[in-house]
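Audit log entry. Action: structure prediction of a protein-small molecule complex. Ligand: zinc ion. The ligand was supplied as SMILES and no pocket hint was given, so placement is left entirely to the predictor. Protonation state taken as written. Sequence taken verbatim from the request; no trimming, no tag removal. Recorded inputs:
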Amino acid sequence: MPVNPHEHRYAATASHSSLYEGEVSGEILLDSQSFRFRSEAGEVEIPLDRLQIERTGTDQFLFYDPEQTDWSVYTSEPGILSDYYFKRRNSIRLQVREILAQREGLRTLRLAAVFLACFAALAGLAWMSSGWVLQFLVNRVPVAWEKNLGQSLLDEAREDLHFVHDPKLSATFGAVTNHLLRGVGKTDYQFRFHLVADPTPNAHALPGGHVIVNTGLFEMASSPRELAGVLAHEIAHVTQRHGMRKMISTAGPYYVLRLFISDQAGFLAAVSEGSQLLLQQNFSRELEREADQIAWQYLVAASIDPRGLAEFLRKCRDAMPAAQVTGRLNRLLSSHPPTEERIRHLASLWQAAPRKSGFVELLNDTGP
Ligand SMILES: [Zn+2]
């Protein structure tokens, strides 16, 4: 069989009205004038001007000639659509464009369907076991995104915060945090502690590692181990990604969907709408409990007496009646609602603790 070097070839199958057995295999030969299908069972030639192209449901391309309707030629080689000879024919170019547009439209539809299905499944699952699904979603958020989010939150809040640069306070503080971080060990986060002038005895952990610590905390926490306890709790909020969890759970289905399809910019844009919530940190009972539990492990690993956190909470509780007048402590306690419950939980941890002595002294830490 003579081979024409100008012909382009594509593997194909064809059916003919006489072939009751179905299809025959062969090849398509293209040149500047015609489309030919050649096989052992026969061949057909279609002038390019008459060639009709359609896409079949099975992702094949169908070629036929309205004047020789007994032949249908199929190929699944998508490259044929961009063939040089096809591109030079206006009539064919238009058909190809339509086929590609259809395919694009179908793909979009299919993607949308997949997302909807995922979403419906997720919504169902979320309803059944929100904790598990949430964690799954949170795990999908890259730590780098989380850090950027925390940074932009800090930048936003900067105007309202009065950062304190007190060398003496910073030295005390640094000694406690350095020691504590040894117990935290290696994580994906770098912790940065920011002292701000605010009399409320409180601290806020932002996603990604920034922890804002009010000077009021130092007034309330009379011993370094109390301070260490509170900071360990905040660090646990960071490492367990509670900020993300809270944002995703309060943000609702829209954000969930965004999480699946967004790049970082889209993600930040989506979550920053709800991010102010993070500065009024109302974590759920469950997350507070988890943070206490993890904080306990950090403290013990750092050889710090883990009772400091409960001691601090008790102090807050006891100061409550007097402080209700000012509303300051009230705010603190309402942002960590089940204080009593936490105290009980921490007491039970101490009861079950295998180690009850031999903790380090943090700067003349005598405790109460
Ligand atoms: Zn907390």
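Audit: result stored. Residues 15 and 21 are 9 Å apart (CA to CA). The chain has two domains: 8-101, 129-352.
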